[in-house]
Amino acid sequence: MRTMLSGAGGLAAWSGPVLDGVLQSQAVIAFTPEGEVLYANALFCAAMRVDPGAIVGAHHRQFMPPALRESADYAAFWARLRAGQGQTATVERLRGDGRPIWLSCSYMPIHGPSGSVDLVVKIAVDVTAAEEQRRALERVTSAVQVSAAGVDTNARALLQAVERQVEASHSEAAAVAQVTSTLSELRQTSQQALEQSQGMLRAADRAHEASTHGVETVQQVIAGMAAIRQRVEVIQEKILALSDQTQQIGDIISTVNEIAEQSKLLALNASIEAARAGDSGKSFSVVAKEMRDLAEQSKQATRQVRGLLGGIREATGAAVVATEDGIAKVDDGQKLAQSSGRLMAELGEVIEQSVDAGRLIANASRQQGLGVSQVADAMVSIDHALRASAQGAEAVQRVVTELAHIAEGLQRGVDGGGARAAA
Questions:
Q1: CATH of the domain at 44
Q2: CA distance 133 to 148
């Protein structure tokens, strides 16, 4: 190595103690401008896990990852070295056993006496552990950045959700308050409806009782009308019998009248005969006159009786007509009473149905009142729960806000630490 350097453009500075110090402390390898190995010290061979005798003459590409050996960047790399442009970088290479190694190295083109590059010297330091730590730190930093970003995003999303929940809790609390107020009014209305239904039920009971009494009264009226009809029929029969008897008396009076007429004629004949008899017939004439007077009186009496019988016949006829009309009226009244009875019975059934409906309404109103009371009590419990939920959501909102601030600070710290590590 000393011979190669001393012949390369008078680089005497690389001779003596300086070169010895570099070769003893650094991994050094020398290449031709085309990349073939001319020399490698023991430190380089040990770091790269290669045999010092087998490495000379090999090409630099054997240390390259397979994907880069034929790349345009690799060809350009050697073109820049041949042009005298030094290269310094931390690069990944492959050891002889195929395992990767990270080297912090400097490629130095060495010019010959003609001014062209005769030699490329590489001084390298194994920084695999540091690079692996750096890469591990990058992975951790990246993961922390992703986690911090995720925490920040989730915290913000959670914060928005909690804010919506808080708003919803307040809205629900307001709605529950309105529902509770409405239920309170509904409870009062249900109580009023219950009282009214109970009043209606009492009225319906009274109406049912009155209809029952009405039916009984109508039945009594029908029975009374039937009794009246029977009595009127009896009276009619008696009046008809009286009319017949009056007719018989009239017949008798006619006979008496005829007898009186005949008696009068006989008395007149007797008077005539007495007048013919002279004095001896005077007493008989007096008797005849008395008989004539009695006959006249009998005739007048028969006229009076006949007049009275005529009045009796007219009265009995009127009475018969009146009784027949009364019977007809009684029949009409009986029919009306029976119709009223049927109507009262139907009314009783309707009222009974109304009573049953009133009981159902009263029971329904009572159950509605109980249900409304239970719902109102439940709404009060829900209101308390919603208030507690809103308070809990507000507490969560504060915690999530603080978490979002922490996540944001963590992300800023990770970004700053990553930037410092990259530097």
A1: 3.30.450.20
A2: 21
Please, is 34 exposed, middle or buried when counting C-beta atoms within 10 Å of its C-beta (0-12, 13-18, 19+)?
exposed
Asked whether residue 270 falls in the same domain as residue 363, the answer is yes
Last residue of a domain, one of 126, 142, 161: 126
84: left (phi over 0), alpha (psi -120 to 50) or beta: left
Summarize pLDDT for 40-87 with one digit per residue, the tens.
999 999 999 999 888 999 999 999 999 999 999 999 999 999 999 999
Classify residue 88 by burial, with Cβ atoms within 10 Å: 0-12, 13-18, 19+: exposed
Nearest to 217 by CA among 115, 379, 65, 344: 344
Note down the domain range covering 267. Answer: 179-407
Torsion of CA 374, 379, 385, 389, to 10 degrees: 160
Give the residue from 18, 64, 11, 20 showing the smallest Cα distance to 43. 20
- Output the six-digit token pair for 301: 């009496």
* Model confidence, pTM: 0.41
Task: Quote the number of domains for the chain.
Answer: 2
